[in-house]
Amino acid sequence: TQLLEQSPQFLSIQEGENLTVYCNSSSVFSSLQWYRQEPGEGPVLLVTVVTGGEVKKLKRLTFQFGDARKDSSLHITAAQPGDTGLYLCAGTGANNLFFGTGTRLTVIP
Amino acid sequence: DTEVTQTPKHLVMGMTNKKSLKCEQHMGHRAMYWYKQKAKKPPELMFVYSYEKLSINESVPSRFSPECPNSSLLNLHLHALQPEDSALYLCASSQVGGTEEAFFGQGTRLTVV
Questions:
Q1: Is B74 on the interface with A (CB under 8 A)?
Q2: How many Å apart are CA B38 and CA B104, to the nearest integer?
Q3: Residue B83 in 3-state DSSP?
Q4: pLDDT per residue as tens digits for the range A63-89
Q5: What count of other Cβ atoms lies within 10 Å of the Cβ of residue A104?
Q6: Cα distance between residue B100 and residue A106, in whole Å
Q7: CA of A85: which chain B residue's CA is closest?
Q8: CA angle A17, A86, A84 (to 5 degrees)
Q9: In which region does residue B38 sit, left (phi positive, over 0), alpha (psi from -120 to 50) or beta (all else)?
Q10: How far is Cα A17 from Cα A9, in angstroms, rounded to an integer?
Q11: Distance between CA atoms of residues B71 and B80, nearest Å
Q12: What tens digit of pLDDT does each residue of B48-68 get?
């Protein structure tokens, strides 16, 4: 089993603040995805990063894949209450999708 | 159509019951997955089907029996479950190989009484 550790596990911030979530592993992944999940729903894909060092932006969200393809980060600028949810990174390999430990984000209005 | 449809959305079953969870996708994906998710935890992989054949079984107890009757459908047959099996069961699908981006259904909330 390839382990993906996310930090922090929980994060509670005020609206308008910036934050970064980290996803780390000792394994190399062919690609890495970030998902957001709301209570009672399935995870929704936000982005896929494939190339080491790649940076992708999705509005206020910036995703980075580490040079060695073992880690990734998600940075949110000016967080809003609608960003509240469980953020999951997931690494792919051997026709499998391994989820990280998750970061539960709460943005307080 | 980028939907993965799971039925039922909610299920309550007794420990002696037999029930099935169903999952359907029409994106032409040839990999389909079952995940189990307990409250406040990330999804845990149970099974992976690739080209309608079981490719991964993550040491799941035999009271869970997966079936992939064709490339669009995935079932999970349940029999003699325990209360600790209560969880959100998620189905996902993806292309085989490549970046393997997965699309998830909304899940079935299962309660075993």
A1: no
A2: 16
A3: helix
A4: 999 999 999 999 999 999 999 999 999
A5: 16
A6: 29
A7: B40
A8: 40
A9: beta
A10: 18
A11: 28
A12: 999 999 998 888 999 999 999
Instruction: Tell me which DSSP letter residue B85 carries.
Output: G
Chain B contacts in chain A segment 37-66 (CB below 8 A): 40-45, 48, 50
Which residue type does B102 have? A
C-alpha A55/C-alpha A72 separation (Å) is: 10
Residue type at position A2: Q
What is the identity of the amino acid at A54? E
Of B33, B30, B29, B39, whose CA–CA distance to B21 is shortest? B33
The per-residue DSSP string of A70-89 comes to: SEEEEEESS--GGG-EEEEE
- Type of residue at A73: S
Amino acid making up residue A31? S
